[in-house]
Specification:
Elements (H helix, E strand, L loop, with lengths): L1 E9 L5 H15 L1 E7 L4 H7 L5 H10 L1 E4 L13 H8 L4 E7 L11 E7 L3 E12 L2 E11 L2 H17 L4 E6 L9 H15 L4 E6 H10 L6 E4 L1 H14 L7 E5 L4 E5 L16 H13 L3 H16 L14 H14 L1
Parallel strand pairs: 1-2, 1-3, 3-12, 5-10, 8-9, 8-10
Antiparallel strand pairs: 4-5, 4-11, 6-7, 11-12
Helix pairs in contact: 1-9, 1-11, 5-6, 7-8, 9-10, 10-11
The chain binds nicotinamide-adenine-dinucleotide.
């Protein structure tokens, strides 16, 4: 029994509390004990503390440096910025790691095993935008500014290359648009080339692909890729694309990694259309918890958790509705817990 790793738990909005409960049941069955500090953010934070990202949440993560987070809704109106983006900025979570692995064979694409590394703090995604009025039209011109820095590109690339090598990966593909956005994405590509030449030539293969071609190639033959590393906006889009290759958002976990903190979450949102119905697929968040276990070096427990998901899906054939099954969240969780306990 491992005990008492301090961690922040944010149940989040919509289906968040339902999939968090399922994840806690799985961790409990594994015998892993986190010392959870439960905090409210998103709509729940706005309701309880008047802010979608209350100071208490930031203080908690500052202390624990580790968080498991349900999806957060950004209240529309009121000028609130996304709590997810604020969290990434507050803790400088520069690396977003999104693995996509086939869990149920026989889908449109079999044997997918990809990782997308996404720069998480820079680029066009930062939302530096404004309008310029013209001829009495206040919204005549829209301008967005993207900022990529050498240092920001480098730290993400260093993380991605080190992670790929440590996980026995064979190839890393740098995804860019440096043929058109020569400076904004060229700076990222050049850093990748430099880093590779300086440190990784003998340790992993590297190639380069332009984002639009990459999207097409991923759909036609995803097996030609192993890991992908890219800038913020391209990574946002590509990681949803690769989630689609393995059956959708219900099975896509993500880690946001910084020097001083790490936050683990499902890639999907709060799914308001099914919230409260007890039918959500908790596996994306459970897989995020497995990434969190790897992060705190509980490798054996992480492996047991992934194996139990595989057994529940493929031996017991227990699946939630999004995967064509009939189990609700509770029934799936019970089957998973039984597999964790009994193997
Ligand atoms: P969504 O991911 O919540 O839902 C898209 C579709 O996928 C819906 O039909 C939903 O029912 C389904 N779905 C998602 N997760 C599922 C699960 N675990 N099991 C079964 N079905 C699932 O995307 P959206 O509707 O565009 O966003 C809803 C809210 O979530 C928005 O407020 C958005 O800002 C927020 N959001 C938060 C995060 C985050 O916290 N990281 C990420 C994305 C969206």
């Amino acid at each position: 029994m491992t005990s008492g790793i301090p961690a922040t738990l944010i149940p989040g909005d919509g289906i968040g509390p339902e999939i968090v409960d399922a994840t806690l049941a799985a961790l409990d069955a594994l015998g892993v004990s986190f010392d959870w500090d439960v905090q409210q953010a998103g709509l729940a934070g706005l309701k309880s503390a008047g802010d979608p990202l209350p100071d208490a949440v930031l203080d908690s993560i500052r202390r624990t440096r580790l968080a498991l987070k349900g999806p957060l809704e950004t209240p529309s109106g009121g000028g609130y910025r996304s709590s997810n983006v604020r969290l990434r900025e507050a803790f400088k979570l520069y690396a977003n790691v999104r693995p996509a692995k086939t869990l149920i064979p026989g889908g449109r694409y079999d044997d997918i095993d990809l990782i997308v590394y996404r720069e998480n703090l820079e680029g066009l995604y930062m939302g530096y935008e404004h309008y310029i009025p013209l001829d009495g039209d206040p919204h005549a011109v829209a301008i967005a500014t993207g900022v990529n820095t050498r240092q920001g590109s480098r730290r993400l690339l260093e993380y991605a290359f080190a992670h790929a090598v440590a996980n026995g990966r064979k190839k890393i593909t740098v995804v860019h648009k440096a043929n058109i956005m020569k400076t904004l994405t060229g700076i990222f590509l050049n850093e990748a080339r430099d880093l590779y030449r300086e440190h990784y030539q003998d340790r992993i293969e590297m190639d380069e692909v332009i984002i639009d071609a990459c999207a097409m190639k991923l759909v036609i033959n995803p097996w030609q890729f192993d890991t992908l590393v890219t800038t913020n906006l391209f990574g946002d889009i590509l990681s949803d694309l690769v989630a689609g290759l393995v059956g959708g958002l219900g099975m896509a976990p993500g880690a946001n990694i910084g020097k001083d903190a790490a936050i683990f979450e499902a890639v999907h949102g709060s799914a308001p259309d099914i919230a409260g119905k007890g039918i959500a697929n908790p596996v994306a968040l459970i897989l995020a918890a497995a990434m969190m276990l790897d992060h705190v070096k509980l490798y054996e427990q992480a492996t047991r958790l992934r194996k139990a998901i595989d057994q529940t899906y493929n031996l017991d054939q227990v699946r939630t509705g999004d995967l064509g099954g009939t189990a609700n969240t509770k029934a799936f969780t019970q089957a998973l817990v039984a597999r964790i306990r009994n193997g």
